[in-house]
Amino acid sequence: MNHNLFGEPTLMLSYPVNLERDNNNTYLVTFPDIPEAVSVSDDEDEALLNALDALESAIEIYFDEKREVPAPSKPKRAQRVVTLPALVVAKVLLANEMVRQGVRKSELARRLNLHMPQIDRLLNPRHASKLDAIEAALAKLGKRLDVSID
């Protein structure tokens, strides 16, 4: 069985959320695994949509601070989750591997023979990078990206 860098059997990263309604009838969404990600909205569906944006923003913080993005914990029964898009997952896996190996962006740029702005885009969760660029970066780190379908 194939495993991702978190030791999980798939490429999906689904983060459990806490959804709370406050006295003003707004919804607060927090992530137990990523405390930097917080979202507020007037209704539950919008709160969950905004939560993905908040999660991606928090991931940018982890990337900028050269910290590993934590793996999601197992959701409790009936707990809602926010699932990262596959491309963002690939970027998280790349960034985490760079942190583990102590490889800085400048070193990755050198290994890939790319300029720093290209590496910055590669590690930007909101940029539509090509998957083959992430695969090439992981290969330079001695890793291979596996994609599966459930």
UniProtKB/TrEMBL annotation:
It holds the Pfam family HicB_lk_antitox. It comes from the Bacteria. Residues 15-89 form the HicB-like antitoxin of toxin-antitoxin system domain. InterPro entries: HicB-like, Lambda_DNA-bd_dom_sf, TTHA1013/TTHA0281-like. Gene3D superfamilies: 3.30.160.250. GO terms for molecular function: DNA binding. This is Antitoxin HicB. It comes from Caballeronia terrestris.
